[in-house]
Write a structure and sequence with these properties.
Blueprint: E1 11-16, E2 20-25, H1 31-39, E3 55-61, H2 64-75, E4 79-88, E5 95-105, E6 110-114, E7 120-130, E8 134-141, H3 148-155, H4 169-174, E9 182-189, E10 202-204
Parallel strand pairs: 3-9
Antiparallel strand pairs: 1-2, 2-3, 4-8, 4-9, 5-6, 5-7, 7-8, 9-10
């Protein structure tokens, strides 16, 4: 088998100690598959999800005490996550914080976005890092709902390039896009207790969009 034929690793290690494991996930890999691989070799606890076709950072706990602290940090929004997204078109204004409402459609395995209730309130911040026919955005999640970035940006008129569910199919085909251009790029922890030594630390994915 040639190197080109070999399967890509499901993830690369970013940080690992007794309490936490931070990995850089490959696009197209289920979060559960990453967890299964980790749990097969050491104590590990699932903390949060990352869409299968979104690459980038995930964090897992290595102890029960770390699990409790990480779950509390995510629940209390003490974990800051920044994504990079390549989108169709360039948003205006160049920086904005947008609010909307998200409704899950479990049967269709997708979500719908509206400017008015009902639904879960979502808050998405973006900043244009590079303008053009396809813009590069830095996206900060102020809420973390299912498919939030992909669905919200598409609702605003700037779908993520390569997104097969919420994206522009004609654009994806004409540009021969074979993967979704969305990466969980940075994760900053603000933790206490057993994880106080990691408070303020930012982890960064090596992946690009």
């Amino acid at each position: 088998m040639t190197p080109a034929q070999e399967a890509k690793p499901a993830f690369f290690p970013v940080w690992e100690d007794e309490n936490v494991i931070v990995v850089d996930k490959e696009s197209g890999v289920n979060a559960e598959a990453v967890f299964s691989e980790l749990a097969a070799r050491r104590e590990a606890y699932f903390i949060h999800r990352l869409d299968r076709n979104t690459a980038g950072l995930m964090i897992f706990a290595g102890t029960r005490a770390a699990e409790a602290e990480l779950l509390a940090a995510f629940r209390e929004r003490r974990v800051e996550k920044v994504y990079l997204a390549r989108v169709v078109g360039t948003p205006s204004p160049a920086h904005a914080v947008r609010e909307a409402y998200l409704i899950k459609d479990a049967a269709a395995k997708r979500v719908r976005i509206s400017n008015v209730p009902p639904g879960e309130k979502i808050v998405t911040e973006y900043e244009v890092a590079e303008a053009g026919e396809s813009a590069l955005l830095r996206v900060t999640l102020h809420t973390g709902r299912t498919h939030q970035i992909r669905a919200h940006l598409a609702f605003l008129g700037y779908p993520v390039a390569g997104d097969e569910k919420y994206g522009d199919s004609a654009y994806n085909r004409s540009h021969h896009l074979t993967r979704q251009r969305l990466v969980a790029k940075e994760m900053t922890l603000f933790c206490g207790g057993v994880l106080s030594y990691l408070s303020g630390r930012t982890f960064t994915s090596a992946r690009e969009v």
